[in-house]
Amino acid sequence: MNRDARTKEFYILAAFFALFVLFLYGPLSAIVILSFQGPDGGLTFPLNGVSLHWFYNLFETQAVGDFGASFRRSFTLGLMVTVTNVVVALLAGLAFRNRFRGSTALFYLTVASLVVPSIIISLGIGVVFQQFGLRPAWYSSGFGAHLTWTLPFGVLIMLAVFNRFSPAYEEAARDLGATPWQTFRHVVLPMIAPSLIGVGLFGFTLSYDEFARTLMTSGTYNTLPLEIYAMTTNVTTPVLYALGTVTTLFSFTVILLTVAVILLLRRRQAKLS
Prior knowledge:
By secondary structure, the protein is an all-alpha fold. The protein has a domain at 65-233: MetI-like fold (Orthogonal Bundle), CATH 1.10.3720. The protein contains eleven helices and no strands. The protein has helices at 3-34, 53-58, 67-95, 103-111, 118-131, 141-164, 168-175, 180-208, 212-215, 224-231, 239-272.
């Protein structure tokens, strides 16, 4: 392939990628732009001035909606899911390194929830809680519903990680006199730490914006996605767009910080090796 053909192919692929990014982030950019409406601005274009009015209004007492409390619930729930996701996925990855009776059935049972409609799982968990006389709440039934979505991804990631993990490192550590716990702590854990952080990020982001599996399991108090959805029917100011912009920036900040930690860990491993 000559240079002109490669250049033409590059521009075609670049144009295709640009269209993909525009399709992916076009609606989001509209929300970000409209969140900077002036004090008298509405929910549609054109902009009626440019200001930070609606961002300031976001942190004031609202007649409708409870941004702060719903954000704290979503954030707390995301952290609970993250910790559980990392611990269970790690233990599952270690367990599945060796074949055991029922391992195949357990694997398919773990990932089965990915193919069941989310609203059905949410409805089922809510009904079960009610049948046992328990009140659904975001920290109990909602927590369980989120795990049915996040945990299979975490397990699949760890299975892929350990599938590529060479046992030679552990054998070398044991030959040098390390105990099984020392081998895990000083050899295995540092090597899989970036993957564990990725599992945690996966769990947090999937939980933070989960709507369908929270709908019937959150109980009396809404998480942030439910609160935003409820506000779309009764909020008529760009404060809703300001909320969308702030939560989006928060999500991207979490992702960037996680990527920075992973790169730092890999750089330290490269120096040690």
